[in-house]
Amino acid sequence: MRIGIDIDGCIEDVARFMVDYGIKFCIENNIEYKVKDDEYDDAESLGISLDEVEKFWNENLVYYVTEYRARDYASEVIKSR
């Protein structure tokens, strides 16, 4: 049996990653941003363009999926299923 697990937003907190690492990305690239905590969409959460979001993910996706910390208790929840 093979089981697939959706990591972005389920196992890892993509919204938190986008704010934390997105702000760093904006500062390093001189991009104006405005954090909107009530937005889930990448571009909307920082008020940046889709091109800027694409550049962000091109630079950060591998780290996000291989190194970024999982949500608290993610392992326990997976093992309980």
Topology (SSEs and partners):
Layout: H1 14-28, H2 42-46, H3 50-66, H4 74-80
Descriptive report:
The structure is a single chain. The model has no long low-confidence stretch (mean pLDDT 85). The chain is elongated. With 81 residues, the protein is mainly α. It has helices at residues 14-28, 42-46, 50-66, 74-80. The longest helix is centred in the last third of the chain and has 17 residues, at 50-66. The chain has one domain. The protein has 4 helices and no strands.
The number of helical segments is 4
Shape annotation: elongated
Low-pLDDT residue spans: none
In percent terms, what proportion of residues is strand?
Answer: under 5%
Please compute the radius of gyration using only Cα atoms. 14 Å
Order of helices and strands: HHHH
Helix content: 40-55%
Main β sheet profile: none
- The end-to-end span amounts to 13 Å
Instruction: Give the number of domains.
Output: 1
- Overall structural class, as computed from helix and strand content, comes to mainly alpha
What's the count of strands? 0
Mean pLDDT: 85
